[in-house]
Amino acid sequence: MHGIKRTHLSKDAKLRKLEKDKVKIKTYRSLQDDVLDLKDSLVFDQMALDKTTKLLDLNPEFYTIWNYRRDILINYVLKDKSLEDLKKIISDELLFTMTQLKKFPKCYCIWNHRVWMLSYDKKISNWDIELMTVSKMLDLDSRNFHGWHYRRFIISSMESLIDKDDLYSLVLINLKELSYTSKMINRNISNYSAWHNRSKLVVKLFEQLLNADYTNILQRLEQEKIQNNNNNNIIDEYINNFKLFENLKNFINLEIDLLINAIFTDAEDSSVWVYMRWVLSSKFFYDKLSKDEYLQNLNKMLEKVEELNELEKDDNNGQNNPWCIKTTTLIKELIRKNSNTL
Amino acid sequence: MAAEEELKLAKEKHVGYVVELDNKRDQYEYWLTEHLRLNGTYWGLMSVVLLKTPDALDKEGIIRFVMECKHNDGGFGPFPRHDAHLHSTLSAIQILKILNSLDLLTTDEINKTVNFITSLQLPDGSFHGDRFGEVDTRFVYTAINCLKLLDKLSIKVIDKAVEFISKCQNFDGGFGNCPGGESHAAMIFVCVATLAICNRLDIIDKPTLVQWLSERQVTNGGLNGRPEKLPDVCYSWWVLSSLSILNEAQLIDFEKLKNFIYKAQDTINGGIADREGNEVDVFHTYFGLAGLSLMGFDNLLPIDPIYALPTHLTTQYHQN
Ligand SMILES: [Zn+2]
């Protein structure tokens, strides 16, 4: 149990609860026995499906019943159906899980069922709607582990439907994700989940574009902008982000400016400092720089972090900011290591 | 609230709490949690074992219940008539190991259990939790730990599993629930412990991971599972066991963490909650005690950070 306040009931309240529980237990157990009997007899029909709905409403964690529900769907509900019928069934199932997720946003079983249903035939699922749905859920709880996981599942499903040679569409999906992730970071700089997603997207986009025809992709992005008069701003953002990947040095410089901006916005927030450690010390980045460029970046950051610590000391009766101290030590160590091996 | 120096572990209360767990059939919650009963039995059993009162629970009754949860295919469900799952299968094997009763399973039964587990491994090395289940690093740990306890862990299974885990590594040195997933202390524990069982800790970016783990302790002494989240008693286990496996547990302030766990106790009815003032449950009771045991407090039985079993049952795995 997480986050439930402890209460010590009075004797009377306890008795009243037990009285109520008696009724609930009776209903629950008889429904449960009923469904498990149907399951054991391999009954796959509408009545059985409806009973699983009822039982899962009472207890969404009962994964055995979710399994049975999927058996019913496979062996009866989805069997020999027209495309239109399939779409309707899938959308009903998604609606059912959405009602449940509103009550239990952290229940693995519900998210799992949704993933299963959408994977049943990835070609007929409406992924754009899913993306909108999960964005709404992340608006409510921007750190929901399940939500972000689900979001990456949607993206990889969309990618799996794209022709392998169609690099443009692949890149566009991830440029959109990068913009979404930036939006989440700008909204709340301490959203570690968004920083994490950024780390994945940066590497992924870089790898996708390693052998790409930049000019061609850029032209298609420009065409998209013309076709999409209403959405010029967002496409401009994709284009700008895309251009960064043509030369990773520019990207790193901007990343460093972004980080400096972030630590001066909130010097206590750990997300930014952890991300900074990665940008400063990961081979992925420094491999793309000459030794001089790398040392320049390190020195620039060192200066800023030390400057920030002075400001922090002024604000906090001479107390150092521990993140500044830790990062200063790290940067000095990196500078030492890289100056030695000239 | 009691002053800091008066805080202590309410041992007898916790034993009483665990013993009473099975006498709550008149409460609705008892029936809603059947899907965790075998796991809960392991958490409860480990709690009284760590408290050095293993006889507080009815050994014969527990073994009977474990056997009732066994399916013909060798897997165990969390409760009779519930589907077999890797998680409950590990609990079953751990319970039998603790009660020195693994020999109750015949060679044929053990082979079936091994088949049940290995048949859930996918070509990329990951494991499904059950026949419809999600893919998750948690199930790699349950599978590998279980095979090790049954003495049936093969190189083929290891190599694939390690390959999968290496894909779940992140920029912060941590591990997520699948490739691309955000680092989370519980997922880090399952990955680090799996790698330890497989003798493959070398694939970890140790300095980066250790630093991230050591930053999980917050001002009130508790540990959180991800940056900028609230502390929670169960992370006393997930974070501390990972650091212990990496020989870096000393980076955590033990005194402060101990007090955080003490404050989460229900000193009237026993049990430990996720944090001070919240409702207790057997999961947090166990993980609170496991954390205290790892830190060497309260004369608890020492626990093995890799296998989540008393150390006297795992010495054979640490020779070489
Ligand atoms: Zn917890």
Automatic annotation (TrEMBL), chain A:
A GO term, aspect molecular function: Rab geranylgeranyltransferase activity
GO:BP terms for this protein?
endoplasmic reticulum to Golgi vesicle-mediated transport; prenylation; protein targeting to membrane
Keyword Ribonucleoprotein listed? The answer is: no
- List the InterPro entries: Prenyl_trans_a
Whether Phosphoprotein counts among this entry's keywords is no
The record's keywords, sorted A to Z, are: Prenyltransferase, Repeat, Transferase
A Pfam short name = PPTA
Its EC number is 2.5.1.60
What is this enzyme's catalytic activity, as reactions? geranylgeranyl diphosphate + L-cysteinyl-[protein] = S-geranylgeranyl-L-cysteinyl-[protein] + diphosphate
User: Record's Gene Ontology CC terms?
Assistant: peroxisome; Rab-protein geranylgeranyltransferase complex
Q: Which Gene3D superfamilies match?
A: Protein prenylyltransferase
Function (record text): Catalyzes the transfer of a geranyl-geranyl moiety from geranyl-geranyl pyrophosphate to cysteines occuring in specific C-terminal amino acid sequences.
According to its UniProt record, which protein family does this protein belong to? Belongs to the protein prenyltransferase subunit alpha family.
Per its record, how is this protein called by name?
A: Geranylgeranyl transferase type-2 subunit alpha
From TrEMBL, chain B:
Which domain of life does this protein belong to? Eukaryota
Q: What is this protein called?
A: Geranylgeranyl transferase type-2 subunit beta
Q: Give residue ranges for domain Prenyltransferase alpha-alpha toroid.
A: 9-308
Gene3D superfamilies assigned to the protein according to its UniProt record, in alphabetical order: 1.50.10.20
- Give a GO molecular function annotation for the protein: metal ion binding
Q: Any idea of its EC number?
A: 2.5.1.60
Keywords (alphabetical) are: Metal-binding, Prenyltransferase, Repeat, Transferase, Zinc
**What job does this protein perform?**
Catalyzes the transfer of a geranylgeranyl moiety from geranylgeranyl diphosphate to both cysteines of proteins with the C-terminal sequence -XXCC, -XCXC and -CCXX.
Give the originating organism.
Answer: Pachysolen tannophilus NRRL Y-2460
Could you confirm whether the keyword Iron appears in this record? no
Please give the PANTHER family that the UniProt record associates with this protein: GERANYLGERANYL TRANSFERASE TYPE BETA SUBUNIT, GERANYLGERANYL TRANSFERASE TYPE-2 SUBUNIT BETA
- Family, similarity comment: Belongs to the protein prenyltransferase subunit beta family.
Please give the subunit comment from the record. Heterodimer of an alpha and a beta subunit.
Spell out the GO cellular component terms annotated for this protein, sorted alphabetically and separated by semicolons. Answer: geranylgeranyltransferase-III complex; Rab-protein geranylgeranyltransferase complex
Q: What class of enzyme is it?
A: transferase
